[in-house]
Amino acid sequence: MRDKSLWRQVLVQTPVLVLLSLADVDFDPGLTPRPPGALTAAITAVLWVGLLWQRRRPEPALMLLAATLTVLAVATNGFSLLGYAVVCWQAYFIAANLPVRRKLWVTLLLLGAVGTLVLSTVRSYFFLHQILGLDSTLGLQQFFVLYSALIFITLLSIALCWQLGLRSRRRRLRLEELHARAELAAVTERTRIAREMHDIVAHSLTAVIAQADGGRYAARHNPEAALQALTTISHTGRDALTQMRQLLSVLRDDDTRETSSSPGLERIEELLHEAQRGGVHIDWHETGTRRQLDPARGLTVYRIVQEALTNIMKHAGPTDARLEVDWSAASSVRVSVDNAPGTGVYEAVDSTGRGLQGMRERARIHGGTARWGNSQYYEGGFNVTVEIPT
User: Could you tell me if 338 and 321 are in contact, meaning their C-beta atoms sit under 8 angstroms apart?
Assistant: First the structure.
């Protein structure tokens, strides 16, 4: 009962094959119709098994069905509705399920159908010639017109079933493609959420650790500075919590999502203030005319600046830094962050070293570039430069 489609096929296939086998008319040498015998029943049973086996092993089952249909054609003195129906179904099955490049099955199917009909035509002609004495030209012409029409209708039916099979195949492939796209979109969204969570958590915790370490040193000599550090920790934690809620709200139903916009260029000053509270003295320069970025690119610029400042607080501690946002190029924006060598006052923060690669991945999403190396403003310092098309 696990495979419901198998049982549906059994329930449909069984009565159809039985009715078609009973509907076949065979004649004895005296032109007396005779009911299906043991051979017809055996052929029907083999066809029943072959059609079910076709679900698991298509090609061996096709060979079995072809051999069985050949026996049916040889053993029947007349046109077999059972064989006709099975051949049409095989045309549909081959087109819908087997690769299109396997044209051998198409050729065999057509040759088998035509050959069977020709064999049936020749046998019927000699059979009727002996019994009825079809000696007149008119009778011969009527006979071949009838069987020519029969061959044409059979081939037309095979072509129609083939086209229906191709249509079913295209529809199935389209659904599979849509399913694959949905899975890819889900993976992409999970990757985006993971990257955003990394940036939010890494930046916030780095700022919190820096403020906590600074507050610990300041508590002995400057209680006011220690109080300011605690205030900064509280503000940073709340802001990180808000961003996390916005980020994770995409996993909820539409009616419960938080609709606050993602951070962009307008919130870069907040990052600079947080870094300054952590002891990083930043000189900010913006050249050219600022242009409106779409939310995705605005978020990318924000996260890149955030990651660069986080790395400064992690690895350099209180130091001097320079942020430059250059809009001079007509089709891109360049963000450059430099920092002087750190004083090493704060304790080192564990890092997986993925921050720079994360910036490069963010830039590549929009067709941009990211590079890093020695700073040209601070001797012994570090520079990160990212350029993103606008």
Answer: yes
Find the mean pLDDT for residues 110-120.
64
pLDDT tens track for 182-194: 777 777 767 777 7
User: Which residue stretches of 260-390 are H helix?
Assistant: 268-277, 295-315, 355-365
pLDDT digits (tens, 9 = 90+) for 332-348: 999 999 999 876 544 44
Comparison of pLDDT for 88 and 257, the residue scoring more: 88
Burial class (CB in 10 A: 0-12, 13-18, 19+), 348: exposed
**β-pairing verdict for 26-27 and 382-389:** unpaired
Give the separation between CA 181 and CA 224, rounded to whole angstroms.
56
- Rounded to whole angstroms, how far apart are CA atoms 347 and 315? 9
Q: Where are the domains of the chain?
A: 4-135, 192-389
Percent of the chain with pLDDT over 70: 72
Instruction: Check: pTM over 0.70? Answer yes or no.
Output: no
Q: Which of 265, 256, 283, 230 lies closest to 390 in space, CA to CA?
A: 265
Structural tokens at position 77 = 């003195």
Does 3.30.1050.10 match the CATH number of domain 192-389? no
Could you give the CA distance from residue 57 to residue 94 in angstroms, rounded to a whole number? Answer: 12
Which tokens is 55 given? Answer: 């679900």
